[in-house]
């Protein structure tokens, strides 16, 4: 049962956090020295305009989560803990659902959280929930010598991912690529796309982002990372003002709500910022992508017949487009 947390849950919260931390070398909990608010956590978060939930089974506290407003529409998710014997059972998802829904109903436009660099299992969980690494590591100077990653996601918005963000986005980007390939999108791969192939592709993209060869954008809808597009800026020496658009992908569950258009609009802005006014791309002739590019003012260069194999083994024509984003 998930219910609002109470100050009187403090012994249960402390035992829960202790059980979670003790699984990681060097993590030590000294409540009175470092987290005295655990003695009255409901009062503490209520005082900050936030909220606290507890999961309780057979009179035992098995999970907890808190949320509080920061500034400029950002809300922080904190103290996400699930009893180790229940890991993998979906309780963390249910707790995060409650906290995210509360923050969104209160007007949150962005969710952020800090997580110990050692809590690798938690990182995979946040990444599955569409959070990406954003910003530098924080040093706490505490008895556990904690270093923390910052994760964040807009509720609805577009962001440029740096290399750490790109790596954190791999689970969602792989899921989107796999879904698009499965429904027959002409985006280099054929179905069924093996999980390793999808992951390797985005891993290589993250390396290219780190090297400055690609600019990777992600788009969120209702707190879910649902779309992406890449600007390839590694061009031959004699074409310094050109870039190529690649892998415009929107999760089939989030189609026709304007996300691809918003991604392309932001991509054009990033191209201007990177001093790449001349853009090129190719797309399957007659696809939804082609309709979007035409609607956004791209010029058709030509169509190459029989250019790519499709999921049924036939050959598709590919249309090549260009656009100058500044005059
Ligand atoms: C192409 C794709 C990115 C469009 O994503 P989307 O978020 O649904 O697109 P948007 O909602 O932003 O659409 C904007 C406009 O593009 C056009 N468009 C998009 N999808 C279309 C479709 N299937 N048929 C016709 N027009 C379409 C429309 O003009 C649309 O405006 P409207 O909805 O007001 O009519 C998505 O269908 C996709 O991921 N397809 C598979 C991958 C792919 O082919 N990518 C292109 C590679 S070059």
Overall description:
- The protein has 327 residues and is α+β, with helices and mostly antiparallel strands.
- It has two domains: 2-154, Aminopeptidase, CATH 3.40.630.30; 157-324, Gcn5-related N-acetyltransferase (GNAT) (Aminopeptidase, 3-Layer(aba) Sandwich), CATH 3.40.630.30.
- It is 32% helix and 33% strand.
- Strands 1, 2, 3, 4, 5, 6, 7 and 8 form an eight-stranded mixed beta sheet that branches. It has a seven-stranded mixed beta sheet with strand order 9-10-11-12-13-15-14, with helices on both faces.
- β4, α4 and β5 form a beta-alpha-beta unit.
- α7 (170-182) crosses α8 (195-210).
- It is elongated, with a radius of gyration of 23 Å.
- Bound molecules: coenzyme A.
- Coenzyme A binds at residues 180, 185-187, 248-250, 255-261, 281, 283, 287-289, 291-292, 295.
Descriptive labels:
8-stranded mixed beta sheet, 10 helices, Aminopeptidase, alpha+beta, 327 residues, elongated, single chain
Taken from the alpha-carbon principal axes, the silhouette is elongated
> What is the annotated CATH architecture of the largest domain?
3-Layer(aba) Sandwich
Major pleated sheet: 8 strands, mixed
CATH fold call of the largest domain: Aminopeptidase
Strands, helices and their partners?
Layout: E1 2-4, H1 10-21, H2 31-34, H3 41-47, E2 51-57, E3 60-69, E4 74-82, H4 91-105, E5 110-116, H5 120-128, E6 132-133, E7 138-139, E8 147-154, E9 157-161, H6 163-168, H7 170-182, H8 195-210, E10 214-221, E11 224-232, E12 242-250, H9 259-273, E13 278-284, H10 288-295, E14 299-309, E15 315-324
Parallel strand pairs: 4-5, 12-13
Antiparallel strand pairs: 1-2, 2-3, 3-4, 5-8, 6-8, 7-8, 9-10, 10-11, 11-12, 13-15, 14-15
């Amino acid at each position: 049962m998930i219910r609002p947390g109470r100050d009187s849950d403090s012994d249960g919260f402390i035992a829960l956090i202790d059980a979670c931390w003790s699984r990681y070398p060097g993590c030590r909990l000294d409540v009175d020295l470092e987290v005295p608010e655990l003695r009255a956590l409901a009062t503490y978060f209520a005082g900050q305009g936030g909220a606290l939930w507890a999961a309780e089974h057979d009179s035992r506290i098995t999970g907890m989560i808190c949320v509080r407003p920061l500034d400029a529409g950002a809300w922080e998710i904190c103290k996400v803990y699930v009893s180790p014997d229940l890991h993998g059972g979906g309780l963390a998802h249910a707790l995060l659902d409650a906290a995210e829904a509360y923050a969104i109903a209160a007007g949150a436009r962005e969710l952020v959280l800090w997580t110990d660099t050692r809590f690798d299992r938690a990182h995979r969980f946040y990444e599955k929930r569409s959070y990406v690494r954003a910003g530098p590591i924080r040093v706490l100077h505490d008895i556990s010598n904690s270093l923390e990653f910052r994760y964040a996601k807009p509720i609805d918005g577009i962001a440029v991912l740096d290399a750490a963000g790109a790596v954190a986005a791999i689970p969602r980007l792989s899921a989107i690529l796999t879904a698009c390939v499965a429904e027959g999108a002409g985006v280099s791969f054929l179905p069924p796309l093996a999980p390793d192939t999808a992951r390797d592709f985005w891993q290589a993209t993250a390396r290219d982002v780190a090297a400055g060869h690609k600019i990777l954008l992600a788009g969120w809808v209702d707190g879910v990372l649902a779309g992406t597009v890449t600007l390839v800026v590694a061009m031959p020496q004699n074409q310094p003002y050109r870039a190529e658009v690649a892998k415009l992908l929107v999760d089939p569950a989030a189609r026709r709500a304007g996300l691809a258009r918003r991604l392309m609009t932001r991509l054009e802005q990033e191209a201007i910022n990177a001093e790449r006014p001349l853009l090129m791309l190719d797309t399957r002739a007659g696809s939804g992508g082609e309709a979007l590019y035409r609607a956004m003012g791209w010029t058709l260069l030509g169509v190459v017949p029989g250019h790519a194999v499709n999921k049924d083994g036939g050959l598709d024509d590919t249309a090549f487009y260009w656009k100058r984003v500044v005059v």
